[in-house]
Amino acid sequence: MAVWLFVGISSLVLVILGVTDGFMLSDVWLGYLSSGGASVAGLCLLVLCALLICCIKGRYRIICMTLCSALMAILFAMRALIAAEAFDQKTLDTRHIVQAKAYMPTISDGVYDPVLGTSYRQMAVLSDVKLAQAPSDTIGVQTIANPLSDTATATTNQPPPSDISLDALNGISVMMSANPNFSKQDLSVLNTLKPGDVADVVLLITPIERTVSAGGFDANQWLRTRHIHANARIIQAGSISTHTPQSFGEGLIITLEQYRHRLRTHFYQDWHKLTTEQAQAQAVTLSLLTGDRALIDKSTKQMYQLAGISHLLAISGAHVLFLAMMLAAVLLWVLDRFAMSVYQAIPRWQIRMAIMVAASLLYALFTGFDVPAVRTVYMLMAVWAVRYFALPISALSVLCVVALVMVWLDPYMLWQAGFWLSFIAVLLLMRYEMDDAKLVQGGAMTLGWVRTKQLIKLQCWLFFAMLPLSVMLFGKVSIWGLVVNVFAVSLFGAAIVPINLIAGAVFVIAPSISDMLWDVSAQILQLLHTGLEFTLVEQLGGISAWLYAPFGMAGFVLCFMMVALLLLPKVLPKTVLCVPLVALCLIGMPKHSSGIELIWLDSDSPNLSQYLLKVHDDNGTRHWLLLSEQGARLKDNYTNQLIDTLHRQGVDTLDGVIVQSPSAKLMPVVAHIQQTIPIHRYWQAGRHEPLPSPYHEPCTAGMAWQDDALSIRALTGWQMIDDERVQHCELEIISDLPMLAVDMPSMDADAAALDELDQDDAQLPQPNPLNPPNQQGVQMVTMTGGEPLLWQLWAMLCDSEPSLAVAPKQGHQPLILGTQNATDTKPITRQLPAATIYPSTR
């Protein structure tokens, strides 16, 4: 019952949080919900219903339980609406340049280091917000409009517009950031900030982006789970004062956070004298102790992701439970030796549970109160209550009740991947223990061999059972995790984590002993990092280590059904597993008919177009990748994101890659792709020295390639002219196969630019349906360059070289792939007046 209640309530809350903007509620209702009156009424109804269930038996019990479940669902729906409304009241829609006092309740997420170029990130609560103007020496801030001030007079004495209130900015939480690579001012004072401090700052506050990145990361959801309402760039930092706690709980949290900051400062001493390997071993050591991952660099995180052991960097329930059991054992030993009479008043198990709950709660608060640690604390409390009151409730029901309590306290917790991974991992361990609970007898070698087999079996069970959820949450799963976790989990659990916790416990009284223990832990981690780097990157780097989903949401649903049937065998017979298994096989089977697919590949880098051409015929599926950049600034993770996107599209071999822009920015990208995905042919615009692998052919006007299904011809690209404006390579792609699908972004972004065209010269047609009855093929022309000179030269040469001209092909649907930088489509629309225009960049 508890399982299905949790599934229903969590689904309802997720739906409400996802579509809360669509609820048409009046301000009166929203105010009533926000005041909490509805919650009190709902709680009263819930308590009455629970009492009714306890008192009534017989045939009415089922009705009462159903009524109670319905009331709980209504109550949780109201709680989700309250949380969404409370958050939305503080969200921003415009940019603001303000001066404010920023209170630091927690430790920062990053360290401001001009030497290493690392950025400072800190969650802060604003107060005393006032209007401000950007300093004259601040890069890129003078041109940003401040909606709170009159830009015409450029003075802070002007009152804000009537529709914007500065009071709305007081009390909001922002993610402050400062990058030493993009700021002329020295903001080293940020490193002196510690939890509990209040700093006078000038901030550029920006709304949270609601778009999902190309890698699948949703910044809006991530910031909402941390209750952060906006981003803020630090322009200036002034005086620092100390905040006075308003309650004992606030003072306790600040004290614990300041201790975390003290440990980070201790680890950061002589940081720049360490080698990269030593520094990252120390950073992981700190992360395993306090949950502070600010010192771990991107390469180390990527290595842990590749090895499939990223979960070991987080503070898990094992950390909390080990420390609680260690402190409980020490204190009980003291009581056994010196105060045995205490057991006459309080049972020994209750003292143990009280110590464990208190220790776990303090350690969870100390490490940032992440989901796995919080779950462990609540589970200990629940186990204590169940044993104390002798409640007839199963462990699975206790787990679901704890999950519901956490959702009630914070509905946005359902958006955290750690919530689902933590609870489902515990559920899997419970189910595995039920199936594998048996006594093992024999000698030491026999027991060791049996335990090893059990460990391997457990890791395989967890890997495959968690596979659907992991792929859905992260888009990919490292297959090395199946192997690395077998020894890494044992190494961390038996050696590294205990050493760290013992060192942290004695740091206050014996710092030298703690340093010795941390050095031992760092040495073990450094050896582990070296082994992973040598094995997975250097020796096995050419092997594809990622497992991607070959199916969509329907496949995920079927996988979850299979896992649910395995975990809950009493619900339905196991023979029912054949139904989702057969359906999953049918979904995974290739079912493409002959034709062409044109797929736009999203990217976080602006001024970049990349699309994938899939050709399906009797010989199989062939893939062509077309890339073009118009002054784009490629991010560090761009290549990895592009490779992941290609894998998700089912690409294991590229028949061709064509880089249409003449710059050399994309050449290293293609070389990196070649290491993972074989490339058969490579065209590159511009003049460049050939790479060792893959070798490229210069993309020049007039060159062509074709097979039975596809013909590609370069319309432009004149490398003999020393001008990159005319070296851009535009293409004409012709196929006799029908166009099956065009997956492109909306043309709304280009509508304003297209409206500026001279409608008398070229009337743009409306998009045509794919492959009308009289058009069985497709004729595509790319227009990804932004230089008018390119098409002017092409138009001039068409008179002398008719082979470069573009003519409508009978029975083929004409398409033009344009960009915002190439809005003048008249040179081609004159040749193909019936063409449908698609943008290929945002």
TrEMBL record:
Entry GO terms, CC: plasma membrane
Record has Signal as a keyword: no
InterPro entries linked: ComEC_N, Competence_DNA_uptake
Keyword Transmembrane helix belongs to the record: yes
Every ComEC/Rec2-related protein domain range: 288-561
Superkingdom of source: Bacteria
Membrane topology: Multi-pass membrane protein
UniProt keywords, alphabetically: Cell membrane, Membrane, Transmembrane, Transmembrane helix
Subcellular location: Cell membrane
Pfam families per the UniProt record, alphabetical: Competence
Chain segments annotated as transmembrane: 28-55, 312-335, 351-369, 389-409, 414-434, 454-475, 482-510, 545-568
PANTHER family for this protein: DNA INTERNALIZATION/COMPETENCE PROTEIN COMEC/REC2, RECOMBINATION PROTEIN 2
Protein name: ComEC/Rec2-related protein domain-containing protein
The organism of origin for this protein: Moraxella pluranimalium
